[in-house]
Amino acid sequence: MSTSMIPIIALGSAGLYSVAMIAMKFWWKLPGVGLGLLIVATLLAGATLELAALREERLGIIYTGILGAEVVLIAIASFFLFGENFSYREAFGIGLVILGTALAWA
User: Fold this and answer.
1) How far apart are CA 55 and CA 41, in angstroms?
2) How many whole angstroms separate alpha carbon 69 and alpha carbon 85?
3) By three-state DSSP, how is residue 46 classified?
4) 10 Å Cβ neighbour count for 4?
5) Contact 78, 24 (CB under 8 A)
6) What is the pLDDT of residue 3?
7) Which residues cross the membrane (predicted)?
8) CA 6 to chain CA mean position, Å
9) Where are the domains of the chain?
């Protein structure tokens, strides 16, 4: 696997984990077998991509990249899907996570 693919794989893993988290949020309104299977499938697929990335890159870099991307993806989903707003402090925290992720991957 090419190391240039690692950021894409990490982003894919973050996206799958984010889908699982969003599905978990919907669980309380619409529980069911299908939603449960979606949660399990996306968690397993996200973990599989994470394992692939970990074969080629250090744990700390992959962990930082996936969690940093998840923060951004979940923040976007929170705003657009659930109408959740962020305080200035929360927005600043999200910005710090983005900055920290960029520094780790630079």
Assistant:
1) 21
2) 19
3) helix
4) 7
5) no
6) 66
7) 7-28, 34-54, 61-82, 88-105
8) 15
9) 3-105
Which of 75, 54, 39, 70 minimizes the C-alpha distance to 9? Answer: 54
Residue 27 falls in which region: left (phi positive, over 0), alpha (psi -120 to 50) or beta:
alpha
Q: Rounded to 5 degrees, what angle do the CA atoms 46, 90, 102 make?
A: 55
Q: pLDDT tens digits for 32-63?
A: 898 999 999 999 999 999 999 999 999 999 99
DSSP category for residue 56? H
């394992």: which residue's tokens? 51
Which amino acid is it at 38? L
Angle between helices 59-82 and 88-105 (to 10 degrees): 150
Give the pair of three-digit tokens for residue 81. Answer: 């899907």
What residue has token string 């697929």? 45
